[in-house]
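As a representative case, the lines below give one protein's residues and fold tokens.
***
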Amino acid sequence: MKTLTALLLCLGVGLAGATLAQEKKDEKKEPTAAQKKQQERMRACNDKAGDRKGRERQEYMSTCLKGDSAKNGKMTEQQQRMASCNKQAGAKGMKGDERKAFMSDCLKG
């Protein structure tokens, strides 16, 4: 009798736990504002990509998702500085530790 009662008690607890787990699984979290904005951007870029396929589509989506500055080919100030320093180091034929030290100093301003 005690075994039967214990078995029924365990079964009841197990079913209650399964029910609670299912209820939590069924609940869907609302996306945050940032997630909604990213979803909208993804949807818009996907619509604009149209019939592009393969690598062309991949490159377009990457550029589109980065935003306006990437679409217009504009570089940030840091990107411009990096390009300039890189060009200078290349013109001087620097390599290895010498190049690394030069780039560090150049990028600091």
